[in-house]
Design a protein that fits this description.
mainly alpha; 3 strands; Receptor-associated Protein
Length: about 400
């Protein structure tokens, strides 16, 4: 994101000179106008991007710690600029340190904290900036920052549960592919040459393994190019809205994995929307943010349709039910929450329930996959070894006879 230098006067008539990241001059001028800053001049800083706005990586754990520390300082009565200065100075991550320095500079120049954070979309997403804006407006910034810390921590636990479910099967499959590849590339040719020298007839299984070994030895580059080509194609397809929607729809229909992905999406959707509504963000704006941060194009489209229906005067339950994506329990509980005026707490309860469901589902998935993966590893490696020894067993039996 490009950086612009601007000159002007704030609402009190004081001269303001600062720099901020924005998509273009028009967007920056509109944002500053909302802050009551009258702009005299805006100029782009050529060849420079604000560090942290588009580059540099900040871990989710670092954000959770930052929000927690920030909330404690605000609650203790420290001035906002001083909090940002202390937190920025103590950051080990240079991306987050420079980002906080830029946020502090913008706040000193008259910007609100939310608008200053919007200059760093790679670090502070729409959910964060909307909640901070609601906290500043309502005078409960410390409470909002605590909720953000809790949200980030729960989101981190959800990610870790998914990663733990994938590490074991991916590791076993990778080991199996490497072992089978090594056997076919280095071991099978030795036995093939020996069989040619002995002149013994080969069983069909042995011939298949030897032919497969020759194919891998001669065309290994084709296999690698095919895998890389498939991965690149998949990435390019997912960059297109239609392609991302198509692949996400397929993922949700995969047996065993599909229901798990849906539970993860429901947990994220309810947790995000519940946190936003609790923080005072309007439901239409909350649905917009939730849709864009859902992580699944199918869920995103469904939430955008729900938002349109609410704009037309409908309740939230009916369009959720009509999407035929969300489980009945979810729509019924949201309906109860809407009817009783306790939508935020009901969404948080649904999120808690489905996060527990994700934990249980990942454990069940590992229990189901473990014997299957061991059997796959045994059959693939054991099958190759047995097929190589079959001609020897046949030859030994003939000699014994």
């Amino acid at each position: 994101m490009p950086v612009f230098t601007y000159h002007g006067k704030n609402a009190a008539g004081k001269a303001v000179r600062n720099e901020r990241a924005a998509e273009n001059k028009q967007v920056l001028r509109a944002a500053l106008g909302k802050e009551g800053i009258k702009i005299d001049k805006i100029s782009a800083k050529e060849g420079r991007k604000l560090f942290g706005s588009g580059g540099g990586k900040v871990k989710i754990t670092e954000l959770a710690v930052f929000f927690r520390q920030f909330s404690v300082m605000i609650d203790a009565g420290l001035p906002l600029v001083q909090c940002l200065e202390i937190l920025g100075t103590n950051q080990e991550n240079p991306a987050l340190r420079n980002c906080l320095a830029g946020v502090r500079s913008s706040v000193e120049g008259g910007a609100t904290l939310a608008n200053a954070m919007r200059g760093y979309p790679k670090i502070f997403d729409d959910l964060t900036t909307n909640m901070v804006e609601a906290g500043e407006t309502g005078g409960i910034l410390d409470t909002i920052l605590q909720r953000l810390a809790i949200y980030v921590e729960k989101n981190l636990r959800l990610r870790q549960a998914v990663k733990s479910a994938l590490i074991y099967p991916v590791s076993v499959i990778t080991i199996a592919v490497l072992v089978v590849g090594a056997l076919l590339k280095f071991v099978v040719p030795i036995f093939a040459n020996m069989f040619v020298g002995l002149g013994v007839p080969l069983p069909a299984a042995t011939k298949f393994v030897i032919d497969l070994s020759h194919f891998i030895g001669d065309f290994w580059w084709v296999i690698i190019l095919s895998v890389v080509g498939f991965a690149v194609t998949l990435v390019q397809v997912r960059k297109m809205p239609e392609g991302r929607l198509f692949t996400d729809r397929i993922l949700l229909k995969i047996p065993v994995f599909g229901p798990l992905l849906l539970k993860i999406a429901v947990a994220r959707f309810t947790r995000t929307l519940g946190t936003l509504i609790t923080s005072g963000v309007p439901i239409l704006e909350g649905l917009d943010v939730t849709a864009r941060t859902s992580g699944n194009a199918v869920i995103q489209n469904a939430l955008f349709n729900v938002r349109k229906s609410i704009e037309q005067g409908r309740t939230i339950v009916d369009p959720l039910r009509e999407s035929k994506i969300f489980p009945n329990m979810v729509t019924q509980m949201i309906g109860v929450g809407e009817a009783t005026g306790a939508m935020d707490s009901m969404l948080q309860k649904i999120a808690d329930f489905y996060e527990d469901e994700v934990d249980a589902a990942t454990k069940n998935l590992l229990t189901l996959l473990e014997p299957m993966l061991i059997a796959f590893l045994g059959v693939s490696v054991g099958g190759i070894v047995i097929s190589l020894y079959m001609p020897l067993f046949s030859m030994i039996s003939k000699l014994a006879g």
